[in-house]
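Give me structure tokens for this 254-residue protein.
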Amino acid sequence: MSKEMLEAFRILEEDKGIKKEDIIDAVVESLRSAYRRRYGQSDSVAIDFNEKTGDFTVYTVREVVDEVFDSRLEISLKDALAINSAYELGDKIKFEEAPAEFGRVAAQSAKQTIMEKMRKQTRAITYNTYKEHEQEIMSGTVERFDNRFIYVNLGSIEAQLSKQDQIPGEVFASHDRIEVYVYKVEDNPRGVNVFVSRSHPEMIKRLMEQEIPEVYDGTVEIMSVAREAGDRTKVAVLSHNPNVDAIGTIVGRG
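Here you go.
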């Protein structure tokens, strides 16, 4: 498991941007939880992880006391002095534990923790990537259809284009390249969802920004858009430069 563990750490750190220290903390905590489930205790357990070899060691920690009430948590002063004459009451002594069956449990627990870290980080990267494109136009490829959505591949995720967000009369086939307006990106327990539109009024603004320099640089401002997708669009514009005719700039250009 050691080489596989170190390789997984490298991938998570280099490809997914997760700090190695955070991964190790998560793995150690998962091992502690696995030990508790297996043996019914964790408060008295310490786990050391060797970052160079990928090996872990499980210790139980016992306090030096006059009278032992729980041998899992305590050790008598007499027995402690037999180990090392420097021990005193209240000292904590670590005893290495090596139950063979726990090795298999620990390996599985560590693997699950690493995979969960990868899933969460991948989801976070996907969410942040597309959240940055919210209220923007993106190009994608029509992937598939169902009775609710057209699914548009935007690169690393399939966006959802609902019927009400489509332009009446438009028909697409699989693998068609289309432009869509990203109006909502959300992260929920099932994953990241990206919702796109072909009929959203804001799509007109973004298209005009792409096509008309005066709109892009703010000389002409689009104040509002009233759109009947597939039929007509009305745009209210305002020029911030007395030498630039807002209507003349827009007409025949959008």
